[in-house]
Amino acid sequence: MSVVHNLVPNPMPVSTTGWVQFGGCEYRLTDRGIHVTNLGGGTGKGIEYKLLTLPAGDYVYGFRADVPDHGNGDQLSLIKSPTGETYLRAVYCTHQSGFYTASFTLPEPGCKILCVAPKKQGGEMSVSDLILTPASEWPTVQALHESGALPYPYFNGATCTS
Question: What pLDDT, on the 0 to 100 scale, is given for residue 156?
Answer without folding.
Answer: 87
